[in-house]
Amino acid sequence: MKYDVKKMMMNGLVFPAVGIGAVIGIWAILSQSAAPDLPSPLRTWQESKLYVLEPFTYRGELDQGIGLFTWLSLKMVLKGYALALLIGTPTGFILGSSKLFTKMFDPIFQILRPVSPLAWYPLGLVLFSQARNNTSELAALFTIAMCAMWPTVINTAVGVRAIPQDYLNVAKVLKLSPMKRLFKILVPAALPYMFTGYRLSLGLSWLVIVAIEMLSGRPGVGGFLWQEYSSLIYPHIILCIITIGVVGFVLDRLMSVVEANVNHILNLPGLIQRGLAAIFARRQMEVSHAVS
Fold first, then answer.
1. What is the pLDDT of residue 243?
2. What pLDDT was estimated at residue 265?
């Protein structure tokens, strides 16, 4: 037990601390030699500590604590991410279960999938130009959804295609309705794949919001970064880069915990078997009552 705790401490704290220290050391050396315009770690802290030590202080639209900037970005990300899941999940189910739909639309999806947010955002502005004051926000949500939905679509489709044929055969024998087939078999069996897609989509949503805020000048981490770049305030740019990385890391770890435990939490194979057994038992009771 002591060995396990020591190993966890080494892997979870010591080794990461050594890696971070090495990066800071390289950063300090570069700022004093090859890249003199690069602010040193000390200078970055001195010029950025106001935003860190007062993270929720509001001084102006683009002059806020880094916590407020992060919260503004996260709110937009969660809205766009939810929209991506609402569109991507059913699309993935249809793509995975219908060969005709796959033949018709899979080539289109493969063409649209690599399109950059720099292209989707102007199109969003055109599509929602009649929304007046909400045009920028709706265009941002549209861009996040269009960029982030593809991992969910693809992984959900793969999960549906990977469902054991035995489950589908039992569903045919029991003559399950489409809704029962969906919620008793397809969703539980494909859920691990879906969570993998959800995790990737969340990471893409966070990447996209930074680009959108830089394009639109909206308040948030990306908007603050672009403003400081225009003003050539390099310490604040580095602060934004560190914030983007840390938040992305935290989001990814949270989703990975859910993904890793979803099978254990829901006991998916048992859930499917219990559902099919309950339906089979109900059918037998209905048959026995009809005979009697």
1. 92
2. 56
Alpha-carbon span 53 to 155, nearest angstrom: 41
pLDDT in tens, 100-116: 988 999 899 899 888 88
Q: Give the integer Cα–Cα distance in Å for 162 and 178.
A: 18
pLDDT band at 272 (very low <50, low <70, confident <90, very high): low
Phi, psi of 59 (to 5 degrees): -115, -15
Greatest pairwise CA separation for the chain in angstroms: 92
Task: Tell me whether residue 114 is exposed, middle or buried, using C-beta atoms within 10 angstroms of its C-beta: 0 to 12, 13 to 18, 19 or more.
Answer: exposed
Classify 58 as helix, strand or coil: strand
- Phi, psi angle pair for 174, to nearest 5°: -80, -5
Q: Please tell me the pTM assigned to this model.
A: 0.80
Q: Buried b / exposed e across 5-23, counting CB within 10 Å, b at 16+?
A: eeeeeeeeeeeeeeeeeee
From 282, 258, 60, 64, select the one nearest 184 (Cα to Cα).
Answer: 282
The string of pLDDT tens digits covering residues 41-75 is 888 888 888 888 888 888 877 788 899 999 999 99
DSSP letter at 12 equals I
Residue 204 and residue 287 in contact, taking contact as beta carbons nearer than 8 Å: no
| Residue 231 pLDDT exceeds 90 | no
The H-assigned helical ranges of 98-186 are: 99-112, 117-127, 135-161, 165-173, 178-181
CA distances from 225 to 100, 157, 238 (A): 46, 37, 9
* pLDDT, position 1: 45
C-alpha span between 268 and 187 (Å, rounded): 10
Coil/strand/helix, residue 63: strand
